[in-house]
Amino acid sequence: MKNIILACGSGIATSTAVAAKIKDLLDSNGLEGTFNITTCSIAEAVDKSKDADLIIATTVKPAGIECPFISGIPFLTGMGRAAAEQQVIDFMKA
User: Fold this and answer.
1) Structural domain total, the chain
2) Residue 11 pLDDT more than 90?
3) Quick one: which of 74, 71, 68 has its CA closest to 94?
4) Entry's CDD domains (predicted)?
5) Considering the domain boundaries, does residue 57 fall inside one?
6) What Cα–Cα distance (Å) separates residue 75 from each residue in 50, 63, 87?
7) Where do runs of H (alpha helix) occur along 1-94?
8) In this structure, is residue 1 part of a structural domain?
């Protein structure tokens, strides 16, 4: 089971929206049941990164992240979304 943290400025709005998109993406690629998604603020993400397998954030990557990081901005804007989706799938299948 891989632990994925979805972070945004407050941990409420955009992280929740992107979490739903990531869940749908992973489920539709046969990865249902292989991950757990938690949302939080970007300020909390640094501490949570110690126990996470991946952080996806809709903000700039802060210093101190201790696990792989993928930008979640493409899931909001649509620009570069296919590449970001592929990064997430590749990470999960590695």
Assistant:
1) 1
2) no
3) 68
4) PTS_IIB_galactitol
5) yes
6) 24, 22, 12
7) 14-28, 42-48, 73-77, 81-93
8) no
